[in-house]
Every structure is written in structure tokens, then in C-alpha cells.
Amino acid sequence: MFDLAGEVALVTGGAKGIGKGIAKALKQARAKVLIGDVDKENGKRTASELEGEFYYLDVTDRDQVQYVIQSIYEKYKKLSILCSNAGIFPQMSIENMTEKDWDKVQNINLKGTFFVAQAALKYMKKQSYGRIILTSSITGPITGFSGWAHYGASKAGQLGFMRSAALEYAKYGITINAIQPGNILTDGLIKTGEEYMRKMKEIIPVYTLGKPEDIGYTAVFLASREAGFITGQTIVVDGGQVL
Ligand code: NAD
Q1: MF terms per GO, please (predicted)?
Q2: Is 241 contained in some domain?
Q3: Is residue 51 part of a domain?
């Protein structure tokens, strides 16, 4: 069960953090894992650890996204799994937020999801099979968090995109789902500070922050052939935080 041997998976933002956790879990389930990231150093290291391949990929650059995904398809003759995970979560008040701050978060988190999904769907449709998994969040679609209004909007937006895309592509054997992580210990989270992480641990019912692999194991399930009857759905992985 949940054997991904023979599958080719691209993980955006896979150089480190949650993306790396997803990539590791996919590799454990025997998929060929390709890392697409703007961080060359960590990206190459992660790809080599997982016997995969690194592609320099900025999800906000539509031409580059299309080029990289086309190159992957031509080389491997398939792209069965796309994990659209690249994202940023800088904290700032609405009062101090510039248009540039707002756009940067939407461009990476939301528009980037559209670009990679659109490029992958073209080939997934050709092969009549595909699994797309978005890394959303609990912040935005379920809860709010002071300082993350632009981020919450982008993460809720991803789910709106997902539901319509899932309906549009269901007839081609393609499923599109999302994972909503709670607080997962990554460099991105560490940037929010010790005080934030201490407070979070206190309110998470399992009394610990999540690990990137916790998201990875969920991704393996959604990426599996066995999950073919699930589309347009989300799975919350947050240690019970939003209960
Ligand atoms: P991270 O900062 O540790 O890693 C993010 C990765 O994305 C990095 O490798 C970075 O280089 C890459 N990236 C950034 N901009 C990119 C771009 N334009 N193109 C390609 N790659 C790019 O962050 P993380 O905590 O691992 O977060 C990963 C995803 O999980 C994000 O979408 C984030 O919103 C989501 N998330 C994280 C948490 C958490 O607690 N860590 C919670 C909920 C959701």
C-alpha cells in the first residue's frame, strides 16, 4: 500500500523545511524525487541526499516554470506528482504593509501555485493521471493570526483555486488536494522567534511543534494511487491546534 515506485514527483520549495520533509517521505515510498527551488545550495544537497535531481525554479517566473516542467516531462516521460509547496510567511502589521509586501506573498504563495499547477496539468492531462498536493495552512482558511493578513489571504486563495481545479480535471484521472499544516519546525517558523514558538507549543494539544515529515507522510497518502477517490479536499495536520 502507498507504494510510489515508478512515480516521478516534483516538490517546489523542496530544498529545506516542509518541502524537504515531503521529498524525503516520497523517496521513502520509492518515488523519483525532483526538487524545484531558488535555493541552489540546499536544493542540490537535498536532491543528492535523496538520489533525485535539482532544478533551479522560481515559482513566480511563468516561463521558467513552464520550461522546467516541460524538461522534466521530456526527460522522464512522465510527471505523476506535483507538490506545490514553495511559500513565504513574513509577519507584519496591515498598517506597515506596502503593496510590494502584499504582492510578494501573493506572487509566491498563490500565483506560484497557479503557475506550477497549470504547467503540470498540461502533461498530467496527456498521461491521464496526476496527483497535485498543495501546502496550504491553517492560517487563513481556518484561523486568523495577527500579522499574517496577506499570508492568510494567499493560503485561503490556494484552496479556492484547488476546489475549482479539482472539478475541472477530475475527468482526466487527476486529483488536487491540499494539506493544512499547523506549526511545523522549519527555518521559516524559526524566523517568527522563540517567543512565538514557545506560545504555540503551549496551545498545541499534543504539546509539540510538528516535524516536516509529518506533512510528508500525509503527502505520500494523497500522492498514492489508493487516494484516487479523494479530490478537492484538505487534511489538517496540526497536532489538534484548531480543535
Ligand atoms: P521554509 O522557509 O523553511 O522553506 C521554504 C522553501 O521555499 C525554501 O527552500 C525556499 O527557498 C523556497 N522558496 C521560497 N520562495 C521560492 C520561490 N519563489 N520559488 C521556489 N522556491 C521558493 O518554509 P516552510 O516552513 O518549510 O514552509 C513551506 C510551506 O509550508 C510554505 O508554503 C508555508 O506557507 C507552508 N506552511 C508552513 C508552516 C510552518 O509552520 N512551517 C505552517 C503552515 C504552512
Answers
A1: 3-oxoacyl-[acyl-carrier-protein] reductase (NADPH) activity; quinone binding
A2: no
A3: yes
Residue-wise pLDDT for 51-75, tens only, equals 999 999 999 999 999 999 999 999 9
Please tell me the distance between residue 171's alpha carbon and the centre of ligand 1 in angstroms: 31
Atom number of ligand 1 nearest to Cα 188 = 2
Enter the pTM of the model. 0.98
ipTM for this model:
0.99
pLDDT tens-place string over residues 139-195: 999 999 999 999 999 999 999 999 999 999 999 999 999 999 999 999 999 999 999
| Domain-embedded: residue 58 | yes
Q: Whose CA is nearest to atom 6 of ligand 1?
A: 13
How far does the centroid of ligand 1 lie from the alpha carbon of residue 58, in Å? 12
| Closest C-alpha among 72, 5, 86 to residue 38 | 86
- Expressed in angstroms and rounded, the spacing between residue 123 Cα and the centre of ligand 1 is 25
Cα(5)–Cα(215) distance, integer angstroms? 20
CATH number of the domain that residue 177 is part of:
3.40.50.720
Residue 54 inside a domain? The answer is yes
Q: CB neighbours of 73 closer than 8 A, spacing ≥ 6?
A: 79, 123
> In the annotation, is 151 catalytic?
yes
**Helix/strand/coil for 174:** strand
From the CB of residue 144, how many other CB atoms can be counted at a distance below 10 Å? 10
Domain that holds residue 36: 8-236
